Amino acid sequence: AADLARVAARAAGELLAPPAPARLGDVVPAPTSVAADPAADFTLPADAVIRVSADAAARDVAGQLAELLRPATGCPLPVTELPHGGDGDGLTLTLTGVTPDAGPRAVAAGTEAADTAAPATGGQARTTTGPTADDLGDEGYRLDVTPASVRITAGSAAGLFHGVQTLRQLLPAAIESPTPVDARWVVPGGVIVDRPRFPYRGAMLDVARHFFPVADVLRVIDHLARYKLNHLHLHLTDDQGWRIAVDSWPALAPVGGATEVGGGPGGHYTAADYRRIVRHAARRHVTVVPEIDLPGHTNAALVAYPELAPGKVAPPPYTGTEVGFSYVDPADERTYDFVADVLGEVAALTPGPWLHIGGDEAFKVKGAAYTGFVERAQRIVAATGKTVVGWHQIAPAAHTAGRVLQWWGTNGDDPETAEAVRRGARLILSPGNHAYLDMKYAPDTPIGHDWAGLVDVRRAYDWDPGAHLTGVPAGEVLGVEAPLWTESVTTLAEVEFMFFPRLPALAELGWSPRSTHDWAGFRDRLAGHGPRWSTAGIAFHRSPEVPWP
Ligand code: TNX
Fold first, then answer.
1. How much distance in Å is there from the Cα of 251 to the middle of ligand 1?
2. Which residues pair with 426 in a beta bridge?
3. What pLDDT, on the 0 to 100 scale, is given for residue 22?
């Protein structure tokens, strides 16, 4: 922690010579619409307050905005609730001076309600008309920046939260400093109206190949939230480790979790640990998607419970990086007790709608034995009340209501997956040659794989999730996800090195309308994030394609 503070302090010092101020459009992912008004910049006054609709979830977002702004600005930033019903349509959050004319130019206060709440009124309510809360959808927001206030409007707390992430990016990079910085906190004037292209925008962390403690996972969630990603897929089990405590099969975690790639001590999450992760994510409007990989990738489970193994013989613990050799016995009824017990407990711990059953690389369970297993597992998931997700290898299994396939191929001609979509499946796209964050950036990248090719920032960015798979219309695409497999990734700093700067590219594909897609523009916007990451102590790869300041 001391190290991190030192790095951050140094970076903050460098920032005293401030980089060019942000422009309203300098946001990643690119907003749906941006109307800059250079005459309407907002400067944060020392006495700024945050006013928010009387709604518990909105109030929590306001609290998080205050927590984001206090360390660097040193401002107290009290949060007050607007009177009930004071704001009519949807939720609002307003950052403003104590008096409406605290800005450099005396103009109207941000909202009528703010006028009422403020000691001195006299301005009129802003007249800009815009989309209603309905137009903004489940996650959209509208940001109005005037000299008097910054106002975020949304139909949901998630929308307010995404608006806060945009506001954060519009402040100088020094806002990321954990300690006070002497700066002018200017937000560029104008209006942003923004909502996502796809409802599912995620990243996956493989905590099975190497275990990552709760604190690391919480920080990864924070990284997702910055870029408006709303799902964290946790790959909780694999040959090298079982990472979630299961009461009904108590040896899984302590025995199956005691190993990892390379022979380290491994580890696992208790139910309380997992709940902490879920809660931290929920506050950031991120849904946790737990994966129990079946029927292959199960060596760690077999070490703990040899009765599940074909032949009932315990295999030795596995700490290498081969795939496809292990499986739970699909011909033994005990296997389905195991699947139902484990999925039942994980479902009960998980508030989100998804349960991921893996299904990849079960090379030794073929044909009808494989599809039969998957179909039973799908029914077990349905009985828990969750919606099943699986890697696209489960495509040949019968359709079940709502099922989602996660496609990780490298060639967009995949008739089996397209056929499953025709039978009703929806898709999450994770093409290995664009979205896999465990691929090396370049031949000399010190960690990572290259089986799907090298994935530099441009490759991560230059594809269209709406038109990637032959025969799959954009409407069947639920969204995108960037998986990080961790055979060679052992620390949080290495996770960050593989995430940044590619994760924001994937985030933009998931959020931004296709009409904004433009490599040159993206590269320039992304460059401005380097100083933000440095200031926040985030390790990142200085990709040579990006013009870092
Ligand atoms: C394939 S992608 C796997 C993982 C490996 C990964 C390495 C997928 C569903 N399975 O087991 O970790 O390649 O890139």
1. 26
2. 404
3. 82
Please give the tally of structural domains in the chain: 2
In a domain, 524, yes or no: no
Does 360 lie in the same domain as 232? yes
Do 496 and 471 sit in the same domain of this protein?
A: yes
User: Measured from the CA of 297, which atom of ligand 1 is nearest?
Assistant: 11
Residue 442 to residue 386: CA distance in whole angstroms: 40
Residue 1 in domain: no
Task: Assess if residue 535 is contained within a domain.
Answer: no
Quick: pLDDT tens for 329-369.
999 999 999 999 999 999 999 999 999 999 999 999 999 99
Q: Is the ipTM of this complex over 0.90?
A: yes
The catalytic site residues sit at 361
> What pLDDT score was predicted for residue 3?
54
Ligand 1, atom 13: closest residue by C-alpha: 485
Q: Which atom of ligand 1 lies at the shortest distance from residue 451's CA?
A: 14
Domain that holds residue 356: 200-512
With respect to residue 187, please indicate whether it lies within any of the assigned structural domains: yes
The rounded Å distance from CA 292 to ligand 1 centre is 14
pTM of the complete model: 0.92
Say whether both 150 and 79 belong to one domain. yes
Question: Which residue puts its alpha carbon closest to atom 10 of ligand 1?
Answer: 360
Sheet strands (E) in 419-507: 426-429, 477-484
CA 153, chain centre distance (Å): 22
Angle between helices 519-527 and 502-511 (to 10 degrees): 130
